[in-house]
Amino acid sequence: MTDLGASCPSQAQMRAALQAYVDRINQGDADGVLALFAPDAEIEDPVGSPPKKGAEIADWFATTVAFGAQLRPVAPIRGSHANAAALMFEVTFQPDDGPRLLIRSLDVCTFNDEGLISSLKGYWGHDDMETLAD
User: Fold this and answer.
1) For residue 46, is the peptide bond before it cis, meaning its omega torsion is within 30 degrees of 0?
2) Residues 83-97: pLDDT tens digits?
3) SnoaL-like domain: from which residue to which, for each copy (predicted)?
């Protein structure tokens, strides 16, 4: 078992941050979600898309909230032997002028020494997305 070291956030801190991520998105609190991320954070969601940084992240969460995104974890939040944790969930949302969608995703996040999310990678593909009936 690897020693996490004194500067690495605890498993409890990382799990709490990811639970706050779920709660704040579900509450429509884009600023609260953004506060969970380090200023130099990077988001690649889905993996293979261009990474988002800085103002792009703030815009992305504003859009997420505007689309009425609701996250539902489908497994317990998982830790690691390092500064990373994972969240498996389903998200439903409705883009402007589009149908209601469901995406099944796995987000893997790394954390900095202060317990803020420094990177988020969302793992989902075309087969993990479906249109929902109104």
Assistant:
1) yes
2) 999 999 999 999 998
3) 19-118
